[in-house]
Amino acid sequence: MTLHGLARHGEFEWHLPMTSGMRVPAIVFGSLELVRAMDDKTLTQLRNVACLPGIVRAAMAMPDAHSGYGFPIGGVAAFDPAHGGVVSMGGVGFDISCGVRTLLTGLTRDHILARREELADALFRAVPSGVGRGGTIILEGEDLAAMLEGGAVWAVGRGYGQPADLGRIEDGGRMPGAVPGHVSPHAGKRIRDQLGSLGSGNHYLEVQWVEKILDPARSAAFALKEGDVVVSIHCGSRGLGHQIGQDFIDELAPGGKARRKGKNAAPNPYLPVPDREMVCAPIDSEPGRRYLGAMRSGINCALANRQVITHLVREVFADIFPTARLDLLYDVSHNTCRAESHRVDGKEKTLFVHRKGATRALGPGHPDLPAALRGAGQPVLVGGSMGTASYILAGTTEGEARSFSSACHGAGRVLSRTEARRRFVGRDLMESLRHQGVFVRTMSSRGIAEEAPGAYKDIDEVTSSAAGAGLAAPVARTLPLVCVKG
DNA sequence: ATGTGC
């Protein structure tokens, strides 16, 4: 695209021209370079979001934004249920509550360098990964509903992890308002043997080291020091979240599965823009409430999944490094719709904030943060592409007014999976990463080509843009040593 | 992201 028509508001904020149907402005956060590289589809999608009923303040794209199903990935939009606000499947994303958690290990890079290979093999054996791969747990009978209602709280109750973990997870590890009865039996069946598994695509389990401290005070609050080893887990709700999204799209979008099967698909009364992918339902409607009940079950599923994987990782470390203590720094989801309190025109309101490929980023002092983190702000875990840096940022006070306390979630794709496969060879990438000291283990070398660092934006540029826009403050930069890749 | 398809 050209920058023609975008109005610059400061160094890292751009407003799209208001076109017909837009109820609020559409805002892109990012440097000149990142905004210039965004494709037209991403901006068209952002405009569509700005047309939805009940949207508050603005439709926003984070610096890592790219086009997705309906909403852009890297999109943030808040809706007011009292003014016809909607909830959208494409606004949450297919992998409901996909997210990142980071564990501190108490080890340093020097401790583990000589045993990287052994660690890579052990983690790869212990944590199932890859398309369709199941885990070690089979959910029988009542267990499924209990997991969907209880999230990480359920998992800790079953012996996966420790109670102290729960304080370091959004919502104490359990999203309230989940209604497992609104999850289809088909969706339930898909998670039956998948709990405690990574999945595929951009999901990973990485052992990283803290290469640079960028904010000493906040790093101290997060217990991070230069040279420290941390473990980051990036995954979501596997087939269950995907199926929940698909089920509701099929039900609510005209031209969906019902029509393809020749059944009478009722025209969807909730589709306000001419794009089937923008399917949504009023928050205050029967299907809206039903989707929220199912989607929150998907959130709990992802929280339980990351909790079980944490347990598996701890078992591996207990074997190889018996002195290590794997304390949870934080767990943050980046595909959600959450009911949150925000100040709009001087009044506190409950808004339904969609963050799709965007993280919550609460500023210092927020009451939802655990006491130990309250002074520093919420850890914002920004996952890098394979073999590249990741960042730990912290939420800011300005972020509340700028982006409903939201920030970027990762590097963000620039090449499609197909294009990445054309340009890169998985085995060659693994070999060159090995030369750089990064030990990669995977079920799929094709997946490695799709996840080539060259298929992603520059994460340094993304995080410096988020910082420049005031959405989050850089705390530490990490580099990978071991990567188990879906 | 995804039993990488209906």
TrEMBL record:
It comes from Pseudodesulfovibrio alkaliphilus. Its cofactor is Mn(2+). GMP binds at residues 202-206, 334-335, 383-386, 390, 409-412, 485. Binds 2 manganese ions per subunit. One of its GO terms (biological process) is RNA repair. InterPro entries: RtcB, RtcB-like_sf. This is tRNA-splicing ligase RtcB. The active site is at H409 (gmp-histidine intermediate). Its EC number is 6.5.1.-. Keywords: GTP-binding, Ligase, Manganese, Metal-binding, Nucleotide-binding, RNA repair. It comes from the Bacteria. Mn(2+) 1 binds at D95, H203. GO terms for molecular function: GTP binding; metal ion binding; RNA ligase (ATP) activity; RNA ligase (GTP) activity. Belongs to the RtcB family. Mn(2+) 2 binds at H234, H334. Monomer. The lineage of its organism: Bacteria, Pseudomonadati, Thermodesulfobacteriota, Desulfovibrionia, Desulfovibrionales. It catalyses: a 3'-end 2',3'-cyclophospho-ribonucleotide-RNA + a 5'-end dephospho-ribonucleoside-RNA + GTP + H2O = a ribonucleotidyl-ribonucleotide-RNA + GMP + diphosphate + H(+); a 3'-end 3'-phospho-ribonucleotide-RNA + a 5'-end dephospho-ribonucleoside-RNA + GTP = a ribonucleotidyl-ribonucleotide-RNA + GMP + diphosphate.
